[in-house]
């Protein structure tokens, strides 16, 4: 989902010492947490004690930090770098992280790009705006202060904030014979523009922390491109080749951080038996392939997005929930049984612009997503977590695409998010690899 125009970070640090004996986490130890058991101020205190972050890694189909499980409850706020450019709006970045940290959210996905246009980070190929780069530095430093990790997306498949369309425009201006935005995936010179940008970002030294991006554990992962599609090649070969090439490029510069693609999660031609889980027939013809794409060397975890209200036409909230359950479970099963890696539901939300929207229906949807994650978490499964699209502080309505959740004015939704953070924190603190994942129903 891309916001502002047309469309729509770590688990609380594990503060208790991991038990040296084998532990069995029971279902009741998670399910027994009620809303009255949550001390929100204690979540914030625990979350902000200033522990040094460690790099997130994967082990099988789970995320780990220091050898301990790390299940994610997080959020998206795509515009952080843009507002950080102006000292008058920079406070909104700080507010976002403080409010998210206060309810135990641990990972934030945001844009580390703005290609051409207003407040562009990349003004032209190989030309970067230092003021905007310092704004990105600020975003990372503020996330670190609040013990929130970042998934940083490196460009956009859509036109918002430049993306692949802007790269193609630059190529045309340089005299290249380009006929489609999808030439972004195949033209060697245009690919060279993107590679140069990636290299510059990964080797950037943060002016606030003096840490090179590729060495900074505040960064959870890099994302190649937000919601890639290649409509000119339904076979998926063009996009697959691009993913393989760019994954190699990123890992050659930064082998320490995790890497993901940025996929919406549609099933493609490699698994026609899975087409039934797509929202419609069109989504299987957009040049992406959930299984094949994520099998590319260098890709560490899978992602999928979830927007039943946008994907399913002429449907009601009940249909949305049924589709979401099926969509999530199919991707969790495939992450575990086929890919052998975690899957993150990297965007999910419900638009206030939908004719069937209500706060209660949104809460029901979020609760269903969270319960599906927990059902996997209890057995040490591959659902690595989810990221709500999206969290806003007050006073940023002008950036809202309809999906914004303003915590200060959405108390019932805030309580659901807090409860999930509490449950995952309790799980992560009680179950370690010494348990050999003996997390079972007793």
From TrEMBL:
MF term (GO), any: mannan endo-1,4-beta-mannosidase activity
Enzyme Commission (EC) number: 3.2.1.78
Organism: Dendrobium catenatum
One protein family per Pfam: GH5_mannosidase
Similarity comment text for this entry: Belongs to the glycosyl hydrolase 5 (cellulase A) family.
InterPro entries: GH, Glyco_hydro_5, MAN-like
Entries under SUPFAM superfamilies matching the protein: (Trans)glycosidases
Cleaved signal peptide residues: 1-29
Gene3D superfamilies: Glycosidases
Domain of life: Eukaryota
Alphabetical GO biological process terms: polysaccharide catabolic process
Domain Glycoside hydrolase family: 54-379
Protein name: mannan endo-1,4-beta-mannosidase
Protein keywords: Glycosidase, Hydrolase, Signal
Catalysed reactions, semicolon-separated: Random hydrolysis of (1->4)-beta-D-mannosidic linkages in mannans, galactomannans and glucomannans
